[in-house]
Amino acid sequence: FHSGEREEKCIIEDVPSDTLVIGNYKVQRWDIHKQDFLESAPGLGMFVTVTTPSAEVLLSKLYGPQGTFSFTSYLSGEHIICLQSNSTRFVAFAGSKLRIHLDIRVGEHFLDESLVQAKDKVNEVNFRLEHLIEQIHHISKEQNYEREREEKFRKTSEETNSNILWWAIVQTLILISIGIWQIKSLRDFFISKKLV
To answer: What CATH number is given to the structural domain containing 21?
Structure first.
C-alpha cells in the first residue's frame, strides 16, 4: 500500500488467543528525479504499534526501513496493527510518498529445512510429526475461536429478534389503545352534539 511520509496506516487482523503473528515489511521512498520508488529507504524507519481488542498496546517499537515484527496474542479478537514512518520533517514539508510492502502471517510455524536435513530419517519423521501436531493444535484453536464468534453472533441475533417481537407487540397495543380512545372520543363528541 502507499502512504504519506508522516501518515499512519492501520490494518485490522482478527486473531485467536495464544497465536503467533509475524509481520514482514519493506519501505520504499518515491524519488522525484527518477520518477520511481527507490529500492530501499535509507535513514527511514517505521514505528510499529499493535493494539489488542481491549485497547492495550501489545507492541510499540521502532524498526528500520525493512524488518520483521512478531507478537503473540493473549486475547482473541481484532488486533490493530499500525505503521508510521519516523520522518523528522514537518507535516507541511513531508510530502514524499512511501510504498510499504507488508506480509502478515497468522499462526504459521515454519520448518527449518537445514535442521531436517542434518538429522537422520527417524529424527526427521519425528520432527515432521511434531510440526504436524503443532499445526493441528493451531487449526483446532482457530476452529474454537470461530465457534465462539458464531455463538456470540447467534446470541446477538436471537436477542435482536426477541426485541423486535416485543416492539411489535407494544406497537400493536399502542395502536389498539389509540383506536379505542378515538372511538370513545368520537362517540362522546357525537353524544354531546346530540347527533346520535
So the answer is: 2.60.120.680
